[in-house]
Amino acid sequence: MENQKRVKDLTEKYGAENMVVLIGGAEGEAAGLAAETVTAGDPTFAGPLAGVQLGLRVYHAVEPEFKEAVDADVYDEQIGMMEMVLDVDEIVEEVKGIREEYGKFND
Predict the structure, then answer these.
(1) Which residues fall within 8 angstroms of residue 49, CB to CB, at 6 or more apart?
(2) What per-residue confidence (pLDDT) applies to 106?
């Protein structure tokens, strides 16, 4: 709930078009829920983003768009090991689908 409040406050301060949310859920379903929350609003209707459609850009840390945007050595050190144990394809598919359906600022 506190993260939702932070996202909402930062979006109001800087504008939705200037925001990018990076998530790191270990499962596709969890990553999808987080992505949906910052794009279409909190689907559980329990937090500050309930009914708030921000449409923010959202990526998971294992998505190619993020991986290509950061230093390769840092990525390998911080995230590389996780790629071996996560179902990367499932996570990418889930987050990309949410982003394409609800994102307002997709490049």
Answers:
(1) 4, 7, 8, 37, 38, 41, 42
(2) 80
Residue 107 has what pLDDT?
66
Mean pLDDT calculated for residue range 16-26: 96
Whole-angstrom Cα distance, residue 61 to residue 91? 10
| Alpha-carbon span 1 to 71, nearest angstrom | 31
**Helices 88-102 and 28-39, axial angle in degrees (round to 10):** 20
Tens of pLDDT, residue by residue over 40-95, are 999 999 999 999 999 999 999 999 999 999 999 999 999 999 999 999 999 999 99
Q: Residue ranges of the alpha helices (H) in the chain?
A: 2-14, 28-39, 64-67, 72-75, 81-85, 88-102
Distances 47 to 7, 43, 51, 85 between C-alpha atoms, Å:
11, 9, 9, 30
Other beta carbons within 10 Å of 40: 18
d(CA 1, CA 78): 26
